[in-house]
């Protein structure tokens, strides 16, 4: 090192501050983390040799080594306001109307719309550009002094950039990005430690640590959106300009903040963020609208705790507390016992939830859910609801842990849990009514034999009356038998019979899928059908031959071999063909859907394809037996989505219809190997 120690230390500090700025404010990191760490190490070493060179704003001083015994109190010179909440479009319209009335203006108003971050509100004071004090919001008037902790958050600069005012109090939110939250929880889980329920609790818990070294190890970051006290500079005239100014001073501002016009612009932003919510890198619980012009804000003023010129528009809560009324075990098609928590109905994420799957007994024990417990239930976006955690403080002293039943709750057969497997299964096989019922339901389902009108209730009755025990029995049902079922008129019985008759003309992939072989989903069924061409060839194949099929591994091959080794299953297949169920053989063609490989499939093409026109794609699909349709419905087998696909893609996602991209289409057509 040639530079004098003082000069080198100053240079390193400036470089580190610049990298923090690029990383947190511009979101354009310039150097790898390892290089950043090297700069820090060099600075630490230099300061250790020359302690007189340490400055209070040195990045090495972010972590104080002395845990404090309590947080001091801080009185906010300008109260830290909270926000009024809107839950409906009407609430937002009323907010906008009130502003018009009070200001006595007509026409659309300018707003700034911001994501409402789910973190911890903080005030950070800079004097002559240097970070002096940080505090939590507390009750808005008095908060806690968390300076030592906030100093450890790299997104919060120690020193402002450029022309800093004499005094500036920036306000914003400290939070934990989802990736960091998940990483931290995964580590905690590995060590058998307590996990945080959500990023907000994690941020709050991390910031309120008496030992700032703990805070320093937590992946916290910050976005700023407002001002408290200001001296030595004039306030920008608009909220949008204020955000730009904060950014220029080196304070990170949320990149998803946007200028919008009128109530229409606000609501459009709300919907857009609602859709993007699940893919954002941070957790939000709504959006915030702020009237842009400061002069207008000042005319409107405050109402008790909240400004009249701003409003939080909340998303439907995605977490709620409720009670576990019971935990039952459902038996699935493959005998898997799935524990299901019956809940006191609770409105969460926009729907009422009263049942939540707990997946398997291991999960029940890991979360330690017991009957009578109060639990946190989450439903984020359109993800299936889940039990996040148990509120242990509210557990009744006599609550007993859930046991895996020894015998099947439906048929009484023994329940087995293979060593090392999460799932426990009923060993009753087809003798178990639940498994029979589920197998029939699967066989008749839309993507399998597609027997329209054969719903759960009917299957239940048919199985209960022992009129049907295997899929082949469906083809022996008569009109008088069907007419006798509950809620079944002559007409619907005739329709059902016709649907059963129609299902006899099927395809090999549908049949294979419909047989309900473990781990054989639609894609595997199609691959098997394409590879072997006929059912006989597949039934005669041994495990190693089956493993030749693309994407079929030893586990699936073993399930297939075991399935076809069973006399019972062979009898059912023979009975099906005897009753007239038939399907065309497929031309074996490795890796692609050969002639008629897509028979019976309805496909929708949307968006722009790069390698062919839509007409060419349509032709290629039709040549393989598919029907190409213009609109997406429950009947659509799959949607091919090119670039700029719009409403049809959205509809497919809504209905759960599989979506293929262009690469996958090409692979299916055999034009390219994957
Ligand atoms: C959050 N939580 O993201 C405000 N907030 O403005 C945003 N909170 C706020 N603004 C005035 N973006 C009081 C609180």
List keywords for this structure.
OB fold (Dihydrolipoamide Acetyltransferase, E2P), single chain, binds 5-amino-3-(furan-2-yl)-1H-1,2,4-triazole-1-carboxamide, 24 helices, alpha+beta, D-amino Acid Aminotransferase, Chain A, domain 1, 674 residues
What does this structure look like?
Helix 1 (5-24) packs antiparallel against helix 2, helix 3 runs antiparallel to helix 9 (262-276) and helix 16 packs across helix 17 (522-532). Strand 4 (120-127) and strand 5 form a beta hairpin. 35% of the residues are buried. The protein starts with a helix and ends in a 5-residue tail after the last helix. The model has no long low-confidence stretch (mean pLDDT 90). The protein is elongated. It has 24 helices and 24 strands. It has 5 domains: 3-61, Orthogonal Bundle (Helix Hairpins); 75-314, D-amino Acid Aminotransferase, Chain A, domain 1 (2-Layer Sandwich), CATH 3.30.470; 319-415, OB fold (Dihydrolipoamide Acetyltransferase, E2P) (Beta Barrel); 429-578, DNA polymerase, domain 1 (Orthogonal Bundle); 602-670, 3-Layer(aba) Sandwich (Rossmann fold). Strands 2-13-10-3-9 form a 5-stranded mixed β-sheet. The structure holds 5-amino-3-(furan-2-yl)-1H-1,2,4-triazole-1-carboxamide.
Q: Quote the distance from N terminus to C terminus.
A: 53 Å
Number of helices: 24
Small molecules bound: 5-amino-3-(furan-2-yl)-1H-1,2,4-triazole-1-carboxamide
Kindly provide the radius of gyration, computed on alpha-carbon positions and rounded to a whole number of angstroms. 32 Å
Largest sheet, in brief, is: 5 strands, mixed
User: How many structural domains?
Assistant: 5
Helix content: 25-40%
Mean pLDDT: 90
């Amino acid at each position: 090192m040639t530079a004098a120690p003082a000069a080198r230390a100053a240079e390193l500090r400036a470089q580190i501050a610049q990298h923090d700025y690029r990383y947190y404010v511009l979101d354009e990191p310039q150097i790898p983390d390892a290089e950043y760490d090297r700069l820090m190490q060099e600075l630490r070493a230099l300061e250790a040799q020359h302690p007189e060179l340490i400055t209070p704003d040195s990045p090495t001083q972010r972590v104080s080594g002395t845990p404090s015994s309590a947080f001091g109190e801080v009185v906010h010179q300008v109260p830290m306001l909270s926000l009024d909440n809107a839950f409906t479009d009407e609430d937002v319209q009323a907010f906008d109307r009130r502003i018009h009335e009070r200001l006595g203006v007509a026409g659309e108003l300018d707003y700034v719309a911001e994501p409402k971050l789910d973190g911890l509100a903080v005030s950070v004071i800079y004097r002559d550009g240097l970070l002096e004090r940080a505090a939590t919001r507390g009750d808005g008037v008095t908060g806690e002094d968390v300076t030592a902790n906030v100093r450890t958050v790299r997104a919060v600069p120690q020193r402002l950039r450029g022309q800093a005012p004499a005094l500036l109090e920036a306000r914003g939110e400290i939070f934990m990005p989802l990736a960091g939250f998940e990483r931290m929880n995964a580590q905690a889980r590995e060590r058998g430690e307590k996990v945080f329920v959500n990023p907000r609790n994690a941020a709050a818990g991390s910031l309120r640590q008496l030992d700032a070294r703990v805070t320093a190890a937590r992946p916290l970051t910050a976005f700023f959106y407002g001002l408290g006290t200001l001296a030595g500079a004039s306030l920008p005239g608009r909220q949008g300009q204020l955000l730009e100014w904060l950014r220029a001073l080196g304070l990170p501002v949320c990149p998803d903040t946007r200028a919008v016009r009128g109530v229409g612009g606000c609501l459009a932003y709300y919907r857009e963020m609602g859709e993007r919510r699940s893919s954002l890198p941070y957790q939000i619980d709504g959006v915030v609208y702020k009237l842009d012009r400061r002069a207008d804000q000042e005319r409107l003023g405050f109402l008790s705790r909240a400004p009249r010129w701003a409003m939080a528009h909340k998303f439907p809560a995605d977490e709620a507390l409720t009670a576990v009324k019971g935990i039952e075990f459902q038996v699935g098609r493959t005998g898997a016992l799935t524990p299901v928590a019956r809940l006191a109905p609770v409105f969460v994420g926009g729907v009422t939830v009263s049942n939540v799957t707990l997946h398997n007994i291991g999960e029940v024990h890991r979360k330690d859910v017991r009957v009578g417990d109060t639990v946190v239930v989450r439903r984020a976006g359109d993800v299936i609801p889940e039990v996040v955690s148990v509120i242990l403080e509210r557990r009744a002293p006599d609550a007993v842990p859930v046991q895996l039943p020894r015998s099947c709750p439906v048929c009484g057969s023994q329940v087995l849990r293979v060593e090392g497997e999460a799932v426990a299964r009923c060993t009753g096989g087809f003798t178990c009514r639940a498994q029979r019922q589920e197998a029939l339901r699967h066989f008749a389902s839309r993507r399998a034999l597609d027997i329209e009108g054969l719903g759960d209730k009917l299957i239940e009755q048919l199985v209960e009356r022992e009129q049907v025990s295997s899929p082949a029995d469906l083809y022996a049902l008569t009109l008088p038998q069907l007419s006798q079922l509950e809620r079944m008129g002559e007409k619907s019985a005739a329709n059902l019979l016709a649907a059963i008759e129609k299902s006899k003309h099927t395809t090999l992939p549908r049949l294979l899928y419909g047989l309900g072989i473990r781990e054989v989903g639609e894609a595997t069924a199609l691959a098997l059908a394409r590879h072997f061409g006929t059912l006989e060839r597949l039934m005669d194949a041994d495990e190693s031959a089956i493993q030749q099929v693309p994407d079929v591994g030893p586990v699936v091959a073993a399930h297939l071999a075991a399935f076809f080794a069973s006399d019972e299953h062979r009898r059912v297949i023979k009975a099906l063909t005897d009753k007239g169920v038939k399907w065309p053989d497929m031309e074996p063609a490795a890796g692609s859907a050969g002639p008629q490989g897509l028979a019976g499939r309805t496909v929708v093409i949307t968006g722009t394809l790069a390698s062919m026109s839509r007409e060419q794609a349509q032709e290629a699909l039709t040549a393989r037996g598919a029907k190409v349709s213009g609109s997406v419905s429950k009947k659509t087998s799959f949607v091919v989505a090119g670039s700029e696909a719009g409403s049809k893609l959205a509809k497919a996602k809504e209905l759960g219809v599989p979506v293929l991209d262009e690469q996958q289409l090409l692979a299916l057509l055999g034009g390219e190997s994957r």
